[in-house]
Amino acid sequence: VGPYVLVTPDETRRKQLQQSKLSFAKKELDDLERWKEEHRPGPITLVPQRLGGNESEAQVRQNQQMILMQSKYQKKHKREEYIKAKKAAEEAELLKKKAIQREKAERLEVKKRQEEMQRREMFLENQKYKTNELLNRLDVGLPKSDSCQIANPGPESTAWKRSHAYKQALRQDENRRLEEMKQEQQRKAELLEFKQKQEEEARTRAHQNEQRRVNNAFLDRLQNKTQPNNINQPGYTG
Q: What is the end-to-end Cα distance of the chain in Å, rounded?
């Protein structure tokens, strides 16, 4: 560290600087006050004129009250319309979900019926196959058809006739069952088609009714907007 010189502060000089700063600030404040005084706005002079309208204070109060009542009624009407529209939208969404669930249930029911029909057909085919196999095994030990044309038929010929008649009866019974199953399936298909047609017509009518209701509400709102002063007409009871 090199040598240094310590200079004591000059109190007189410090006081002179502080006084000069204070005097300069006071001069600026005085100039601002003088400028404000010079630019102060003068008195306002207006030409006397009559204020207000041609109606009395009571009529003005009554009109204000009527306007307030009308605004309250309009707000209430808008709130009711909003609630109705929201409720209608919720009901439409619920009906749509119900229709989807109903269609799913119907498709599942149709699928179950088809599977049941397939199981019945497979069961009948299996039964038919086993019956034919049994009859074929019975026919192995029976005589031919030309050997049955003797004058006095024996017990073997009688057994062959019984087997042949039983086979024909089984075939007829199987054909009858198949025909009944086909007719039943056809009736179920027709009934399902008729039911789907009725549901489609019901959905169409519901959609038309909903559209008609929305249109009527829209026309009512238009009529209320085009006739806002109905409550001011004579005979209005509120």
A: 101
